[in-house]
Specification:
It is a single chain. About 50% of the residues lie in helices and about 10% in strands. The C terminus is likely disordered. The chain has two domains: about 150 residues, Rossmann fold, CATH 3.40.50.1000; about 80 residues. With about 240 residues, it is α/β, with parallel strands linked by helices. The protein has a six-stranded parallel β-sheet, with helices on both faces. The structure holds magnesium ion. The site of magnesium ion has 7 residues, from loops.
Length: about 240
């Protein structure tokens, strides 16, 4: 019987915060307003791809969030042979942002899960590849800010998951050793592989039924954050890889 875990680390975007839902609503609104005649599926897929790509420039400090949005819409519409002027791209970026902000919801069970973990005496941290202020605002809007002990962003640490330094910063600030901590996240490479490399245990939140890229890696598979009490117990006792895979 292994010792219980003392800290649970969570990714934020698409782990506690339903970014997929907000993004779908926002890109749907942009398509309805400006995408007449453009097929929605490829439009929306390319947008999601560009978001991932250009977000790396934001993480590296090369683009502000606003400039990243403008660049994304410029490339998206250029792909469909509808080049945007500067002001049109800026307006679209602002429009997208408005819809995104109006559609910010937690993943089902997120608040209850954090509450259950803290009630059990476990430390809770959010470890996120994003900007500090953006994530602070998001956590406050979702009402999750009071339910966490620590926020660690890639902006503050100066490197992004899966780099070990970001996990190590969280562990150091929580004063918990890697082997007594679990990282929960939706991104295989950044969250699961990154955490395991660092000596933490990991849980993969796979809401969309993706195939596991490395089935030999020990991890706790999750398809949702509910039922929360049971999941809290599983995360606290998660330790024996053999019983999980
Ligand atoms: Mg994520």
């Amino acid at each position: 019987m292994s010792h219980a875990n003392r800290a649970i680390l969570f990714d934020l975007d698409d782990t506690l915060f339903d970014h997929h839902r907000a993004m779908s609503a926002a890109i749907g609104a942009i398509h309805a307003a400006h995408g007449e005649g453009l097929p929605f599926e490829p439009f929306s897929l390319l947008h999601a791809e560009l978001l991932e790509q250009i977000h790396l420039d934001t993480l590296a400090g090369r683009l502000s969030l606003e400039a990243a949005r403008v660049e994304r819409f410029r490339r998206l519409f250029a792909h469909f042979a509808r080049p945007l002027g500067d002001s049109a791209a800026a307006e679209m970026g602002a429009d997208y942002r408005r819809h995104l902000q109006a559609n910010r919801y937690p993943i089902d069970g997120a608040a209850e899960l954090l509450q259950a973990l803290r009630a059990a005496g476990v430390a809770v941290a959010v470890v996120s590849n994003n900007l500090e202020q953006e994530q602070r605002d998001k956590l406050a809007h979702l009402g999750l800010d009071r339910l966490i002990d620590l926020l660690v962003t890639s902006e503050r640490v100066g490197c992004a998951k899966p780099a070990p330094a970001i996990f190590q910063t969280a562990l150091r600030e929580l004063d918990v050793p890697a082997q007594a901590a679990v990282m929960v996240g939706d991104n295989w490479q950044a969250d699961v592989a990154g955490a395991v490399t660092c000596g933490l245990k990991a849980a993969w939140l796979n809401r969309f039924g993706r195939r596991c890229p490395e089935p030999t890696l020990a991890y706790l598979p999750l398809d949702s954050l509910t039922p929360t009490d049971r999941l809290a117990r599983r995360l606290i006792s998660h330790g024996c890889a053999n019983q999980l895979c």
